[in-house]
Design brief:
This protein is of the alpha+beta class. It has 2 domains: 146 residues, no CATH class; 235 residues, Immunoglobulin-like (Sandwich), CATH 2.60.40. It is built from 8 helices and 18 strands. β2 and β3 form a beta hairpin.
Length: 421
């Protein structure tokens, strides 16, 4: 049987400890509410992506030159005793890209809303300049009884969501302008464009240029497909987040925006092998991650959003309640006020309401202002109530000042931004 301590001071301390544990229940409910609101925002982003354009991944262009290997096999039909000739063929793809340079200017907009949730979209102008040395077809030698028929070479430009294309991009090469066609003609990487190019002389080096106007939602990524891929991105967006398989080799982030550069060699990238696997795959033998290439990404979102900041603040809820209860217990003991545990409970509930106010206000105003407003309401409410509990306004003001300092100290828990990488 549980024995109740006979010491009144110890008994009250035990009851206050139980109250602290009970306060964890509403704190947990608020954390659940934060998670639910964050999920609602993700639904808002998905809604905008469904009707506008999703996050964009642009694979740098590469060339595909198809060829078919033909051969004949003869056999004797034992029933009719006649010689039967069967023609067989095997399809191959020659995939290559030498050097590719891309430059992207990105404009980020804040003009898409779903309810109270703001979804950032972007528009980009991407210029691609490349150089390619056409392979010598004589190096691909069939067996003596076989022959090779070459198809039309094409330049492939995979784009994850072609709804984001603005205008009609074209390919400029060797003084000619070639229009792109829909699709990539690759089953496992079908989204994008392709352009059929004239069959060149073997071994020549050609240059080409492409300009693409591409819109999307919150994320822009590039897949390095060439032997040497170089990409530069600049924007007035001041809070980029770099991720994906490769981090920028150079980056500058200022109050006026950012610029970043990537330089990826085929020796450090598995993208070319991924493309070969994807190109030769069929739906029946779909390889893992068949529709995705390794890429480097730029996210145009706050590194630390409202809901993450609210969650960070709520993590300190139990500590705040313990500190406030300890201070109130100290005042209670030193002045022999004999405050009732229910009065401690009211103070604890006021502290919990702070986090609920913080979440509600931060969805409509800046998080710093929401924190200031919620903390001010909580401090005024508790100070007014404690002035009656302590029966001393001056001590209540001192208690409120300490509470204000505590809230000011805890601003460091959410004011630090996450790393950009």
């Amino acid at each position: 049987m549980l024995k109740v301590p006979r010491n009144p001071l110890l008994s009250k301390a035990v009851v206050i400890g139980v109250l602290v544990v009970l306060m964890l229940i509403p704190l947990g409910m608020i954390e659940g509410l934060i998670a639910e609101r964050a999920a609602r925002r993700m639904e808002a982003v998905a809604s905008v992506q469904a009707s506008f354009a999703g996050s964009q991944t642009l694979a740098l262009p590469f060339f595909i030159w198809p060829y078919v290997e033909h051969w004949s096999e003869q056999s004797i039909d034992t029933n009719n005793r006649v010689r039967v000739t069967q023609v067989s063929e095997t399809k191959h793809l020659l995939i290559f890209a030498d050097q590719t340079q891309a430059a992207a200017d990105v404009v980020v907009h804040n003009d898409r809303y779903r309810g109270i949730h703001r979804v950032r979209t972007f528009e980009s102008t991407i210029t691609v300049d490349g150089q390619v040395t056409w392979p010598d077809r004589a190096t691909i030698k069939p067996a003596a009884d076989r022959r090779i028929v070459w198809g039309e070479p094409r330049l492939v430009l995979p784009i994850s969501d072609v709804r984001g294309l603005r205008g009609s991009p074209s390919l400029a090469s060797q003084g000619d302008t070639i229009k792109f066609r829909e699709g990539t003609q690759m089953q496992m990487l079908s989204a994008g464009l392709h352009a059929v190019v004239p069959t060149p002389a073997d071994g020549i080096t050609a240059r080409y240029s492409i300009t693409v106007h591409l819109a999307g939602t919150e994320r822009l990524a590039f897949a390095p497909t060439a032997q040497a891929s170089m990409v530069k991105v600049r924007s007035a967006w001041t809070d980029p987040h770099f991720g994906g398989s490769y981090l920028p080799s150079e980056r500058t982030v200022t109050a006026a925006g950012f610029s970043a550069a990537w330089s990826v060699s085929a020796l450090a990238s598995d993208v070319q092998q991924q493309i070969r696997t994807i190109a030769s795959a069929t739906p029946a033998d779909r390889p893992p991650r068949a529709s995705r290439l390794d890429a480097f990404e730029i996210d145009f979102i706050e590194a630390v959003n409202t809901y993450l900041l609210a969650e960070r603040s709520t993590k300190h809820g139990a500590l705040i309640i313990v500190l406030v209860f300890a201070a109130l217990f100290l005042f209670d003991t030193l002045r022999s006020l004999n405050a009732h545990p229910v009065q401690y409970g009211f103070v604890g509930l006021a502290l919990v309401i702070f986090f609920l106010l913080l979440l509600s206000l931060s969805e409509h105003i800046a998080f710093g202002l929401a924190y200031l407003a919620a903390a001010s309401v909580c401090i005024l409410l508790i100070t007014y109530y404690v002035s009656h509990v302590l029966a001393d306004r001056s001590r209540a003001l001192g208690f409120g000042s300490g509470l204000a300092l505590m809230y000011a100290r805890f601003t460091r828990s959410w004011s630090r931004k996450g790393p950009r990488y």
